[in-house]
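input
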Amino acid sequence: MADVGDTVRLSTAAPPIQWYPGHIAKAEKALSANLEKVDLVIEVRDARIPLATGHPRLQRWIRGKQHLLVINRRDMVSPAARLAWDGWFRQRGEVPWWCDAKVGTGVKQLQQAAIRAGEALNARRAGRGMKPRPVRALMLGFPNVGKSALINRLVRQKVVESARRAGVTRSLRWVRLGQDLDLLDAPGVLPPRLDDQLAGLRLALCDDIGQASYDGEAVAQAFLRLLAQLEPVAAAGVAPGLLERRYGVMVPPLPGSDPERPVPDAEAWFAAAAARHTSGDTARMAQRLLDDFRRSLLGPISLELPAAHAVDTVSSPQG
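output
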């Protein structure tokens, strides 16, 4: 897959993005102890970054078990992006289930798919002379991709804590869903080390990693440069002149950059935008931009796209 934005990086002055708090390490140990009890793994990813929210240990966890791939926050990307990713996953033998846990779109279809998995399980049990039982499903994914909200939608009541920030769920918990399905809600899991810093940047932008892991201003500046690279890609959903129209501040080109493919001067834009909106406080302006993206106030934007929809990338400043 060609990577839109693969030259966008944090400033060299910013520390690398890393986050592996103690509760995640503890939860992974408990997760390993419970895997033998699980028949089905329901993996939840973020529609804006479906690759960055795929865990490298997933195949080890689902070995010998049925697997349902859920792409949550479908409302936060364009229909063209959904179509592109749907085809990409299906070509690789995966059937993605597109959901919006916030309003419930796609949740009933996901529940029916899980129940069908249980029926297949019980058919095999009956063939061995065993009694039927509810399917035991593990809800697995990165922090803040919407696992708890999805469980609450499936159960139709608030049975687990859910919030738009990483790290709310801190321990494993079984939840009964009717007579057909038992769900194990697990805390968000991350690799112990984020070697791919572009993936780390995307996790930070989508609030799928703790805020203590990154420099907010550096991430916001990288986001501005990434938006410039995504703008020519129709499926990405970045409207031309998006930031100028929303904030009333033109994005200036970096001095010396190619006039045909100008690199935005992120530092200059934030200084001008902060002067207009946040009394010169660039940190507050950076947080405002990130919050607006996370709340979809900039429109549905995909930070990752399959190769057929990607474009050649533009080098960005490192300092």
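quick obs: The radius of gyration is 21 Å.
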